[in-house]
Amino acid sequence: MKRLTCQEVLDQLSEYLDDEARAELVGEVDHHLGACVHCRVEVDTLRRTILFYRHDERIVLPTRLSGQLQDALERAYRDGYREDGEA
Ligand SMILES: [Zn+2]
């Protein structure tokens, strides 16, 4: 299995958090997260943010989020409405 650097993990977070993420990528990132507290916190924070964003569109995104992560949030928000109406 390929060993990812922190930067590679962060670069691919939006893909990793996508429901359709490749199993290979998920495995690589999970492996990294198992050994890296920093990235684990980052993923945790992003997951929670996506959850909030799905449930309340008025929430203002932290400005430090990169454009790529905002794209992921918007995608998750749209998917949430389309796929799980009762959420
Ligand atoms: Zn890391």
Descriptive overview:
With 87 residues, this protein is mainly α. It has one domain. It is built from five helices and no strands. Helix 3 (23-35) crosses helix 4 and helix 4 (37-55) crosses helix 5. The model has no long low-confidence stretch (mean pLDDT 80). Residues 6, 9, 32, 36, 38-39 line the site of zinc ion.
Using the alpha-carbon principal axes, give the shape: globular
**Element string (H = helix, E = strand):** HHHHH
Given helix and strand content, the structural type is mainly alpha
* Main beta-sheet annotation: none
Poorly predicted runs are: none
Percent strand: under 5%
Number of strands: 0
Q: Provide mean pLDDT, rounded.
A: 80
User: How many angstroms does the end-to-end distance come to?
Assistant: 35 Å
SS element count, helices = 5
> Using only CA atoms, what is the Rg?
13 Å
Distinct ligands, ions and cofactors found in the model: zinc ion
Query: How many structural domains in the coordinates?
Result: 1
Helix content: 55-70%
Question: How would you summarize the topology of this molecule?
Answer:
Blueprint: H1 6-11, H2 13-16, H3 23-35, H4 37-55, H5 67-83
Helix pairs in contact: 3-4, 4-5
Zinc ion (ZN) binds at residues 6, 9, 32, 36, 38-39.
Describe this structure in a few short sentences:
The chain has 87 residues and is an all-alpha fold.
Keywords:
binds zinc ion; 5 helices; mainly alpha; single chain; 87 residues
